[in-house]
Amino acid sequence: MEEMDVSTKSTRPWYQIPLEEVSHLLGTDAKRGLTQKEAMKRLDHTGKNQLAEGKKVPLYAVFFNQFKDFMVAILLIATIISFFLGEYLDAITIIAIIFINGILGFIQEARAERSLQALKELASPMARVIRDGKLDMIPASQLVPGDLVLLEAGDRVPADLRVIESNRLEVEESALTGESVPVAKTEKTITADGKQIPLGDQKNLGFMGTMVTGGTGRGIVTTTGMATEIGKIAHLINEADEVQTPLQMRLEQLGKILVIVALVITIVVIVAGVMHGQELMTMFLAGVSLAVAAIPEGLPAIVTIALALGVQRMIRRNAIVRKLPSVETLGCASVICSDKTGTLTQNKMTVTHLWHSDTVFEVTGSGYQPVGQVKAHGKEVHVGRDVVLCRLLQISERCNNAQLVCEQESGQTRMVSTKSASNWRVLGDPTEGALLVLAAKGKNQFTGKQNPFSGLERVDELPFDSERKMMSVIDRSAEGQLYLLTKGAVEALIHRCTHILWKGEVIPLTARLRNTVLDKTEDMARQALRVLGFAYKPLQEYQKGQSHLTLENGLIFVGMTGMIDPPREEVAPAIALCRQAGIKTVMITGDHKITAEAIARRIGLLRGLTGVLEGRELNEMSDEELAACVENISVYARVSPEHKLRIIRALQSRGHVVAMTGDGVNDAPAIKSADIGIAMGITGTDVTKEAADLVLRDDNFTTIVAAVEEGRNIYDNIRKFIRYLLASNVGEILVMFFAMMMGMPLPLVPIQILWVNLVTDGLPAMALGIDPAERDTMYHQPRSKHENIFGRRLGWKIISRGFLIGVMTLVAFWLTLNEDSSNLTHAQTVAFTTLVMAQLIHVFDCRSEHSVFHRNPFENRYLVWAVLSSLALVLCVIYIDLLQPIFKTMPLSFRDWALVLVAAGVPTFVAGIGGALRSNYVDASTAKRQGVAR
Ligand code: ATP
Predict the structure, then answer these.
(1) Is the CB of 552 under 6 A from ligand 1?
(2) Do residues 463 and 215 make contact, with C-beta atoms less than 8 angstroms apart?
(3) Which end of the chain is less crowded, N or C, counting CB atoms within 10 A of the terminal residue's CB?
(4) Can you tell me which atom of ligand 1 is nearest the CA of 432?
């Protein structure tokens, strides 16, 4: 990828160039960014901002890999020998079948690869960019030199950039420099007297792929894609991301065992056949064909397809799986720990109450439209006449990084000054958005110069973090007076205040007044309101970079706001569903205990003996004490991110498989150590998304439940086709094995064996991989993480069904041969058709863990089509004259078909009745047990 002209105009390195010159050289505006049109033009020129992919396996190699299998190679050699022995037709047909099988395998693998690729693209990072003066979220791959990007803690730096504003911006650059201590970034130009300085010291540059660990900032993109510093070393870091799931690994081992078993049986079959007078070459070819048919070589590809397609179903339900192995773990989840704000609630905040100087105010209006009034005792209040209220609204507006925009019909956005009632939207934190709306409602009472909030200018910011639970800004008034304006959790804030603005006067904050404030906070929280406190202090002087420990002290408390964040409507039924599925839901929140409890009750999370624990109490508990009570806690309130780790460990120590959500930068360790780490797609940071196994596109709790359901279904489907493929193979092996041991003629010729394998193993097995879930998927306890794939009677089902298929095929063969022992082709055609039909009927049995009668057989239309096409392929080789000599078949009569269908139906029918009886018995005894329990 070539570098942009703009970045080569200067011969000096970017860190030596003064800010004004940077924007000039890059042809951009440091406030409004590029225009959309210019950005598009540049994108055409520079290409996408992404690193080149590692080497891919070319398609032809995938194709030839299909024939690398040991048994297939032996079969090819055997076929070539038979060709030279004069069996031309046989040899060519066998090679053709192997070829078709290879194509099928190739299609399966290519499809699996394509789906995996699509998943990777979905998880690609986003960047916040200002174009045409407007903030927008775009895929990082669309960035071009000159773009103005915003950075905050948790972001990956999306391209190489020159920092133009740093509010304690800290970046961890170990990916490039190996140094894991974060570097404090500055906008200051570095004069290095023309000397080159190392990357780690280029403190006014940000490098693509490094991680923002603290603060906020802005930068202008200087280079993108492969021209960036990381791009230059990209070939060193192209990681191998072919991850196999534990199940895939176990199946690979199983495959090896099956090869050995099939080989042993093949040798026994060959030896027994030859001893009973069969020709060596015929037996050799039959034996090797049998081995090829018996080894389920398609299994790994079908597992990948089932996983990948399942994952795509999850995407349709808004869950993006980042790590394939977690699909299996999802089905085992026994606890879901969820954040409250935005996940269980709507994150559509509206301030409804205010409090100061012992007066409660109500705020009317709903949503983000800034239309409403502030009322006290039912009457509208004039904000301008209440200095405390004015100060509170001023802090709401100034100590705020969100933007309120109004989307017009044309799609254009305008800033807050407009009063149009159309679509209002908040860019940034919804809590802050709600405060902007509140300020705007108050401001509506003023015009022009009267506006009491105007005239302040931001000097610096102490960004919000969930440990401190507050945020401050330093503002300068038109007269040059500096102010620290702070908002945050009341309990945290009140301890940093020494005074209070009470009825217009600043008075000392006595213990009594502090208790009044805290009592009022609880009052508001009890109404499920999210409560935020506001404080300020004038500053004599301010030095950039001063710590929050020295600044956020000796504050003057102003008042509080209470905002509602209604629970998502769909959450209560989802929690009930989890309970039914044996999954415990736990709410973890930084919010007030009483607010959390009120919301938890509304969504049916708190019932009976389960309780609420606060971060403070958690601090006092040992790990053992926590583990002892963890089963009884459903809500953790006022917790910090590091508490999440302890909660996960406590749950895991009780044998739980834990799914845990997180959004902030500090949540990454918890997300990593959870069995299933879940990040928020909308509000989550890049760091959490990268650490996560699952990303929720809509931040919604119900999406987690949907993903768990899909996770269970995917695993069930894998069990279904393993059962189908292996039972079919057991049937194929046994029919040959029994016939040879009993000294019968060959029931199937090699080509027939290969054809059975082709028509039954391919499409029907794939269709089982995308079978819809059984009705009771979410009605039983999660399976154990250590469950064997053959557990819950799967091994028995495979052997018993396989045995019945083998025996019934042999019976049909024997009966036909008994009628006319001179016509071996007739008996072989009956055996061949019975074997295929038995498998095509058995495939419907595999759809249910209970019995074939449990489900509507036509529900999965892919399966119906797969079975019909397999049937057509069998009919072709029986009834098309041209194919009969090749496949050693002959047309079957109605009588033959009657025998075929009865023999083929018996295995499934017998097993079905057995399954239905057992299922009824289990249902009845479960009902009895539950009855007793109740
Ligand atoms: P959850 O953990 O469920 O997402 P939360 O959003 O309340 O809940 P945090 O983001 O950790 O959790 O916030 C903790 C507390 O910090 C909040 O209850 C609130 O009092 C305060 N707070 C939240 N956002 C801000 C903000 N932007 N500025 C100042 N204080 C805030």
Answers:
(1) no
(2) yes
(3) C
(4) 27
Q: Which residues of the chain have pLDDT under 70?
A: 1-10, 53-57, 69-71, 74, 82, 85-87, 89-90, 108, 111-124, 192-195, 234-245, 297-298, 407-422, 447-454, 608-610, 919-934
Catalytic, out of 90, 147, 160, 339? 339
Whole-number Å distance, alpha carbon 411 to ligand 1 midpoint, is: 31
Could you read off the pLDDT of 791-802 as tens digits, one per residue? 888 889 999 999
* CA–CA dist 25, 43 (Å, integer): 17
> Does the CB atom of residue 532 touch ligand 1 within 6 A?
yes
Other beta carbons within 10 angstroms of residue 328's beta carbon come to: 19
Cβ atoms 760, 870 nearer than 8 A: yes
Task: Provide the token pair at 392.
Answer: 């509170």
CATH number for 319-345+568-699: choose from 3.40.1350.10, 3.40.50.1000, 3.90.550.10, 3.40.190.10.
3.40.50.1000
The reply to whether CATH 3.10.129.10 applies to domain 14-50+124-234 is: no
Q: Does the pTM of the predicted model rise above 0.90? A: no
676-680 and 694-696: which strand pairing? parallel
Q: Coil, strand or helix: which one is 701?
A: helix
pLDDT of 649 reads 92
Give tens-digit pLDDT for 458-494: 888 898 888 889 999 999 988 889 999 999 999 999 9
Pocket flag, ligand 1, residue 488 (CB < 6 Å): yes
For the segment(s) 247-315+712-772+788-933, the CATH number from 3.40.190.10, 1.20.1110.10, 3.40.50.740, 3.40.50.2300 is 1.20.1110.10
